[in-house]
Amino acid sequence: MTEYEAVIGLETHIQLNTNSKIFCSCKADSWNDPPNTNICPVCTGLPGVLPVLNRKVVEKAVLLAAAMHAEKIAPVSYMDRKNYFYPDLPKGYQISQYDCSIAKGGYLDVPMPDGEMRRVRIHKLHIEEDAGKTVRQRDRRWIDFNRCGVPLIEMVTEPDLRSADEAAQYVIRLRQLLRWIGVSEADMERGQLRCDGNVSIREKGSTVLNTKTEIKNVNSIENLRDAIAAEIARQIRTVEAGDSVKPWTLDWDDSTNTLRKMRSKETEADYHYFREPDLLPVVLEDAWREDILKDLPELPLDCRQRFMDTYDLPQYDAEILTEDRSRSEYYEKTAAAFGGDPKIVSNWMMNDVLRMLRDSGKSAGELKLSPEYLALIIRAVVDNQITSNTGKDLLEKVEESGRNPEEIIKADGLAQVSDDSALRPVVEALLAANPEQVEAYRGGKETLIGWFVGQVMRESRGKANPQLVREILEELLKE
Ligand SMILES: [Zn+2]
After folding, report:
1. How does pLDDT run across 263-272, given as a tens digit for each residue?
2. Which of 171, 209, 337, 382 has the fewest Cβ atoms surrounding its Cβ within 10 A?
3. What's the start-to-end Cα distance of the chain, in Å?
4. Alpha-carbon gap, residue 97 to 273, rounded angstroms
5. Which residue range is the domain that position 307 belongs to?
6. List of E strands, 80-218
7. Separation of 110 CA from ligand 1 center, angstroms?
8. How far is the CA of 24 from the centre of ligand 1 (A)?
9. Distance 79 CA to ligand 1 centre (A)
10. Same domain, 288 and 355
């Protein structure tokens, strides 16, 4: 039996989060706008208008290229016309970049589920404008031009991925990076990150590149994974049946989870590219380039490694704490304010703060529970000023009110009772009221100690020092 391996390359379209479109001043994000309300003569290509390139688009493209370790960020690049007819492309051409794009080469390192790191090389990165949207509704088609002229980066990988899971991991890491460096919201369901997969198969161990198919219109990472897995299986069946794979373009239908043939693939020659005569070359002077790259932050995987090295965190913690930039900054600020064991801060974040973030839909930077306040709460627990349960309640209280936790501890009398003379009578009363349990404990059922501690904690509304309660209990039960 022949063993096959898949050869997968991904072509991604990334919607940049600029305020305005790429060649006009219409706003770029019109997700919530009624159709055809966010348009002008430039983005609908009326005669006599001239496009003007949005500076921010170049800046974000350069930032992304640097984050992808581009081999070359071009000091001069050109805009080209890509000619084709489609109802949602009113000009009859798309302004894009062809042979002299803003960046070439580069890579993204992607940690795979098996723990291995795979380097996915980037072939090319270029700037282009988006087309409009065709909305199918029963027997009608509607055209919405709002999206015309929204700035995109197209990024094409080399065929370095070997499975549907690897392709999914690449998109997960790319999405993290895009948000991390702040160039795109990268929400796949909103089309801010779109992914086409080029898939072929070959005998395992071979180095040939066989005929590939292209999968389009997947709008989530799950769909991308399913579509690629289905296509790999289909190609294997085709080859095993003695047929050859045709260079089709396939469409993923997420209502039936099946692939549908859209058309035979066009080749590049069909587009009749030529230089855009209405735009000047994009000249990236050194000073401008340096100014842009000043904003390039430490990248997510570097940050993860540093968290492991500097704070001595397990990879599991470091991974979760660096999932987004806001969270990683929050962690570092809290760890600095706390000053003690950074793993303790990590535990509080992973257990409690993350739940608050999930429930509220906020980012860490948006919490009223600031890193300084969180550090004060952790400090109070570590110093036995309050119990850890009180600490957890405090998180919610601070988040609701925005008040300083030390103030709340004082005002609400939350301080832990660590006074032997206050706790001893409570424990004595408890033992007197539960002679059966006392007898059972003394008869060898020592796990009952937990039940006794729980009763005292309940009685004290969580304020008793559990360690001290346990000590008093052990002492009195021994008698
Ligand atoms: Zn416009």
Report:
1. 765 555 688 9
2. 209
3. 76
4. 9
5. 300-411
6. 80-83, 93-96, 103-104, 107-111, 117-129, 133-137, 140-144, 151-157, 193-203, 213-218
7. 37
8. 5
9. 18
10. no
Do 274 and 125 reside in the same domain of the chain?
A: yes
CA of 22 to the centre of ligand 1 (A): 9
Q: Please name the amino acid found at residue 54.
A: N
Q: How far is the CA of 386 from the centre of ligand 1 (A)?
A: 59
CA of 449 to the centre of ligand 1 (A): 72
Distance 30 CA to ligand 1 centre (A): 11
Q: Kindly tell me if the per-residue pLDDT of 361 is higher than 80.
A: yes
- Same domain (yes/no): 228, 180: yes
CA of 44 from ligand 1 middle (Å) equals: 7
Give distance in angstroms: CA of 145 to centre of ligand 1.
9
Mean pLDDT of the chain: 93
Rounded distance from Cα 98 to ligand 1 centre (Å): 23
Calculate how far, in angstroms, residue 25's C-alpha sits from the geometric centre of ligand 1.
Answer: 6
Task: Mark whether 373 and 464 lie in a shared domain.
Answer: no
| Residue at which a domain ends, from 411, 445, 468 | 411
Give the Å distance between the CA of 178 and the centre of ligand 1.
Answer: 25
Whether residue 261 sits in one domain with residue 186: yes
Residue 261 shares a structural domain with residue 362: no
Shared domain for 168 and 102, answered yes or no, is: yes
Rounded to the nearest angstrom, the distance between the alpha carbon of 91 and the centre of ligand 1 is 13
Q: Give me ligand 1 centre to Cα 179, in Å.
A: 25
Helices then strands, counting H and E runs in the chain, come out as: 16, 17
CATH of the domain at 437: 1.10.10.410
Helices (H), 187-313: 221-240, 286-293, 300-310
| pLDDT at residue 266, rounded to an integer | 55
The answer to whether residues 267 and 404 belong to one domain is no
- Residue 264: how many CB atoms within 10 A of its CB? 9
How many angstroms separate the alpha carbon of residue 285 from the centre of ligand 1? 27
What CA–CA distance (Å, rounded) separates 432 from 446?
Answer: 18
Q: What is the pLDDT of residues 168-206, one digit of tens each?
A: 999 999 999 999 999 999 999 999 999 999 999 999 999
pLDDT tens figures, 12-67: 999 999 999 999 999 999 899 999 999 999 999 999 999 999 999 999 999 999 99
Express each pLDDT in 89-126 by its tens digit: 999 999 999 999 999 999 999 999 888 999 999 999 99
Tell which of 292, 319, 340 closes a domain. 292
